[in-house]
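Usage example:
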Amino acid sequence: MGDILLQQVRKEFGAVKIIKGVDLDIKDGEFVVFVGPSGCGKTTLLRLIAGLEDVTSGRIVIDGKDATDLGPSQRGLAMVFQSYALYPHMSVRNNIAFPLKMAKAPRDVIEAKVKRAAATLNLTDYLDRRPGQLSGGQRQRVAIGRAIVREPSAFLFDEPLSNLDAALRVQMRVEIGELHHTLKTTMIYVTHDQVEAMTMADKIVVLDLGAISQVGAPMELYNRPANLFVARFIGSPTMNIAKGPSAAKRGADTIGIRPEHTDVSTTAGEWPGTVKLAEHLGSETFVYVDVDGVGPFTVRVEGEAPLHADDRVYLTPREPRLHRFNAAGERIAA
Amino acid sequence: MNVLAWAVGFVIFFPILWTILTSFKTELDAFAFPPKFLSFHWTLENYREVQERSNYLLFAYNSIVLSVGSNIVGLLIAIPAAWSMAFAPIIMPDRKLTRMLYAVMLAAILIAAAILYLIGEARYDWRIYGPIVAVACIPVVYWIMTRRTPDVLMWMLSTKMMPGVGVLVPIFLWFRDLHLLDTRFGVGLMLMLMNLPILIWMLYTYFKEIPAGILEAARMDGASLLNEIVYVLTPMATPGIASTMLLAIILSWNEAFWTLNLTTHDAAPLTAFIASYSAPEGLFWAKLSAASTLAIAPILVLGWLSQKQLVRGLTFGAVK
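Running the assembly step on the lines above writes:
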């Protein structure tokens, strides 16, 4: 079991409102990613669920029981920290065994569970080392091992990959995904990296300034962003935004079109502009265009495009892929 | 630079060296002028006489029990105290609330002092130590209500600024009434209370260096508060705790004011042992030196063996 329900959860530090009334329903077995720019409150929200911070008001229900006033040790959740937070004075074996010892599990059960976790995470050869003697990726695995032996009702990940180098990050991302597939336990994952969010999540929660901007499956957020903030936050490179006559023509205050849904031509199109820079990656080309009277646009072209700086080009959006927003920045339904 | 270091070292060490040398002289040589440095008649006579006249082992035993015992008890109080100062969640100070708290505390203290004064009509001494007890409660109440650690640490430090003699009379009377005079428990309690601010202050500095995330991880792993302190915090802070304790042991070993005033024989530590050689039959430098040497020898050896720990302890956090 791992249902987590948040009802009007608020968190204030003095006069500063960090979380401004969050309602969220997380189903058992879901992989939920909290994503948003730094300072949006995603880590605070995770810590509120963990019990490491007290809510100012609102309710947190875990598996049908009100957990609002329970301490972190009583909520049956496990957490993997950004800094790994391993116990430096204990061997890897004892680090992984610690939650079981705290739960007063019998010695042979501890031994068996630690062995199984170590085998799952390729840590068998390192069991007698101290955390200080491990690489970043190995430390991260120990932190995960410590979380899985508890068999928690949900895992909480607080930006677990941000201290790893790029290659290792991709590898650990896959490993965490596989782990979720095997364990089928609820996971809540905090990141500021929308690529991690898109690739791992069943459900993405986009947070902005302490409030939920949109909740949905990755493709839903990509295809139907509820507002300008989500539209610009999800997707890489960022969605192109245009105001003015071309938006008014379509009955909107602002229109958005993703770089991959914009066509470029050297002869004719809706927006004339000048190429500022073209990045040729072989498989794709990113063209940065300064559109006359509108502003900077990015266009993604499949394969190789023979474009260079200072070329005159014309951009045209693919009409069905166009997103329309009103003056408040909210989506206008088609 | 090296020469200078040795020179300074020698100047600092010289009194101890001179004491040790004097302890091997005859009383006549000890007074000789110009002083004899090495060319005197070496003798163990002083040590024999000191041992004959007083029971060194009882004093040494008292010193060990008092300094080690009082600090173990002190640590049991100081570790949780320092933990809560370093890691317990900070309550955001609300100005109005804080001011109200001050007012309430002040009123409570005044009322407590007044009541104690009235009750104390019959028993004279309450008038002296009653208000002291009331005042001592202020930082505790204040901290519980506001969790403003720096203020409380400052308060603790301020207690060390008051000369001990200022509270000698009330404490002496208190000890007399509670039959604590010349008991190891009483003197140990005094030493413990005296060193508690230093213990808490030093431990707090060490604990501050431990990332709070590790303690949070322990909490997430299902550790109770006690388990968190016993299995995670204490082992990680062992070097800090060891050097704190060492320093406190040395401080209590050398503490003379309270040990001299609150003991006569049964609980008297080595400081009293030395003092007993300065009064009765005038000054006998050689015997006094022999007694001093015997008194400082154990702690000197301890300090020598744990030099590395001590230096680390005293300079901890200075570099970062």
